[in-house]
Amino acid sequence: MMTWDDQKMEEIVSNMLRIGVLTAASLVFVGGVMYLFQHPGPVPNYRHFHGEPGILRDPVSIFWGAIHGHARELIQLGLLVLILTPIARVFLCLVGFFSQRDRLYVAVSGLVLAVLLYSLVFGH
Amino acid sequence: MHKWARIATFCKTCISGPLHIHLNMMSTIVFSAWLLLSSLLAGFLGALTGLGGGVVIVPVLTLLFHVDIHYAIGASLVSVIATSSGAAASYVREGFSSVRIGMFLEVATTLGALFGAYLTTMVSAPTIGVIFGIVLLYSAWASFRTKHDTHTDKPDAMALRLKLKGSFPAPAGEESYVAQRVPAGFGLMYVAGTLSGLLGIGSGAVKVLAMDQAMRLPFKVSTTTSNFMIGVTAAASAGIYLSRGYIAPGLAMPVMLGVLAGSMLGAKVLVKAKVPLLRTIFALVIVALGFEMIYNSLAGKL
Fold it and tell me: How many Å apart are CA B162 and CA B104, to the nearest integer?
């Protein structure tokens, strides 16, 4: 297996971050334009907290809504990609440490990844 | 003092007056345009002054746009992830941020962020507001701290075992460093994570404090590693925010796009300009927002 030195790892991580943010911003932008056309007004009530509806909270329903071209789900999908970008970064680092046979840091990044996935899956 | 108070009230009326009147009947596109503009400015000034745009988003949304603090925190946190990841992409290439130091400390910040996100459901909105105000005041104060690199070559056994060392390109060639006082830095990072999860900010000021003051890392390494860590820390609580319905797409959309575009623009301009005056002004704005957050929370207006 090819080993990644620190510099190679930084390069891969840097490219991944760029692609992640760009994808997220594009999805949010497209969804945003559609949203403005579909919801001309009045502005939703943000003054009192009532929580967004369930379909805008759950990753699976966000994904299906976005596929069907719903504007708000498309924005949420972009934000979900944004949240996943740093998580993917931690995963890439884990792979990098693994290829360097740095057991200590495979464990450290594994721990960070576990915390992140826990919050995403069991966060309610 | 009396005169200044009147001027401040006048300025506030000028800015928030038109918003205040029309907020309820404003069309979504006008509302979004105002949000986009404010976020663009916040991101631009935040990047230009190094204070970060995320820290002013929540006060602007709650004080100016009268958005509930939970929605404000949700929108702020996603924009923090965007700017951190966007900026980190270019920092890593410069070789300043240490991947290992960042990863090790992220254990503390992500656990703290989980705790902070959990706290948001337990703590009342005014309490969040007061804590937010104090953090704003601290961030402004910290930005005036003198940046001296206290260089100690005394090897720290724990830091060496954990490989918390590195080198960075300095004017006089590669300069190497080893972290000191690891437990203190780790503890402070937990606090930084908790604040990030509770307030929807990057809490870069506390992260830099942990690395630069507690762990005695070079200042440049501390700031870039901090920026690198902010995205991972924020991602730990963003998942929880999303599943709790704190992230409103119509609100987060203009805020995230505005802060991201503004901070990218600010980073471009930063290369050419040194901005001590702008920095002072922005720090004063943060101080004013901090006092206003505390005042409004105590007065029950938040």
Answer: 8
Evaluate whether residue A73 is within a structural domain: yes
- This prediction has a pTM of 0.88
Looking at the domain assignment, is residue A80 inside a domain? Answer: yes
Burial class (CB in 10 A: 0-12, 13-18, 19+), B295: middle
Helices (H), strands (E): how many in chain A?
4, 0
Chain A, 89-118: which have a CB under 8 Å from a chain B CB?
Answer: 89-90, 93, 102, 104-105, 108-109, 111-112, 115-116, 118
Report residue A26 CA to chain centroid gap: 13
Chain A residues with beta carbon closer than 8 angstroms to that of B120: none
Q: Which domain holds residue A32?
A: 6-46+53-121
CB of A70 within 8 Å of a chain B CB? The answer is: no
Residue of A14, A56, A83 to mutate, testing the B interface (most B Cβ within 10 Å of its Cβ) = A83
Size of interface A-B (CB pairs under 8 A): 214
Minimum CA–CA partner of A123 in chain B: B240
- Tens digits of residue pLDDT in B200-236: 998 888 888 899 888 988 888 888 888 889 999 999 9
Q: B25 touching A, CB under 8 A?
A: yes
Question: Is A25 among the domain residues?
Answer: yes
Q: Does B296 contact chain A (CB < 8 Å)?
A: no
Residue B26 has pLDDT above 80, yes or no: no
User: How many angstroms separate the CA of residue A65 from the nearest CA in chain B?
Assistant: 13
SS3 state of residue A14: helix
Q: Distance (Å, rounded) from C-alpha B117 to C-alpha B114?
A: 5
Residues B147-191: tens digit of each pLDDT: 666 666 567 888 888 888 888 777 777 888 888 889 999 999 999
Contacts B254 to A, Cβ<8 Å: 32
DSSP assignment string, A30-65: HHHHHHHHH--SSPP--SS-----GGGT-HHHHHHH
Backbone torsions φ then ψ of B166, nearest 5 degrees = 180, -170
The number of folded domains in chain A is 1
In angstroms, the Cα distances linking B162 to A50, A103, B105, B118, B210 are 45, 11, 11, 30, 17
Q: Is residue A1 part of a domain?
A: no
Can you give the residue ranges of every domain in chain B? Answer: 28-298
- Please indicate whether, in this complex, the C-beta atoms of A108 and B107 are within 8 angstroms of each other: yes
